[in-house]
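Consortium newsletter contribution from the modelling node. Members have asked for a concrete example of what our holo predictions look like. Here is one, prepared for the uridine-diphosphate-N-acetylglucosamine complex that several groups have been discussing at recent meetings.
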Amino acid sequence: MGQYIIEGGNRLNGQVRVQGAKNSALPILAAAVAVGKPCLIHNCPDLSDIDATIKILRSLGCRVVKNGDMVSVDSTGLTSNVISECLMREMRSSIIFMGALISRTGEAEITAPGGCDIGLRPFDLHLSAMKKLGVNVSEKRGKIRCTCKRVRGGRITLSFPSVGATENIILASVRAAGTTVIINAAREPEIADLAYFLNSCGARISGAGESVITVEGVDALHSSQYAIMPDRIAACTYMAAAAITGSSIIADGVVLSHLAPVAGCFEQMGCRIESSGNKLRLTAPERLKSPETVRTMPYPGFPTDCQAIIMSTVSVAQGTTIVCENIFENRFKHVAELNRMGTDIKVHDKIAVINGVKSLQGTAVNATDLRAGAALVLAGLCAEGTTYVRDIHYIDRGYDSFAENLTALGAVIKRKD
Ligand code: UD1
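And here is the predicted structure:
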């Protein structure tokens, strides 16, 4: 398994171009199945999760061509609505194909999805929503079979604003007979991006990005070209890289409003944030200050995907930070690894208490999931000596050209496969 070897203690400067959003690109590529006509997707990041999505698309009979950051998907000649267990297990967002396949063919056969081990990650809300849309759902020996003549619009109230469930409902209902209303929908910007893409193909979705989303079913969709929005989690990661090394960098290609909850946190740490158009400069103080309690919440709250990244950053701040993880039960696996590098972090249940230390020491650590891996790389950037971050295949799921981008900013980081 590959590793990153990082020589810590270098200041960063310069500009980094932020990649397209993983969490938009994955559902949008799956959505091309529902569209049923050729789609051209721009600003698609180069990630192993994108490769896994392309494998699923090809297994269903889609023609897919990847050329730089452009991915064309032609699902006209779809030949299957069954996804094998081995492909389903490659990532969590494979579950989104359920809604897309039902929408297109009235049938789907899938298994439980895989993904980073950050908690139970059930999908009961997805299945009960499909049933509300008139889909028959049966489960036998780990296989989930969904069938219906045509999806029927309905009113669905989610007990939790699940991102994945909201996406599946939008996809399943986009070509339904009648109108679907989703109440307590997830408000993440990636939901709005999916809706904008589908609307560019002739869908009639309103309210995406808000708590109530209305999907008026249409008979058919048409071809479209669409550019994926910038990745707010990658942007936060580069901001954290500047903060933890006491540096000043520019992140290019960001949507500042998407970063509001994390920007506030960096400002509390004493960082200065200036923005102009789609560029943002973060300038860190000599020593960071601990921010107020960080609580992960559904958007527009503080994103769970930034929790590990911020924890690593505040581990060298002056003072004590409390982090409360409210979304996933098992999302503190990075703590044991960070403590090996000299952080002082204690965890009780969903609370982590981080007493800031003056410095970290490089050592060998293991990435335990995607964002945990990024958090360890950040710690390595400011640590004394050499840090070896192993199991970086997790990081490859979500970061395009991570080492190259950090190197261009002045970090000393090498990849060894
Ligand atoms: C979550 C994040 C999303 C992030 C993504 C990738 C939230 C609200 N969602 O999305 O921002 O980009 O991970 O890391 O922060 N749940 C159920 N039953 C279900 C579905 C979900 O109980 O059927 C629960 C989960 O256990 C979890 C919470 O709802 O506690 C959030 O899940 P959900 O938003 O669905 O997760 P993802 O779509 O993976």
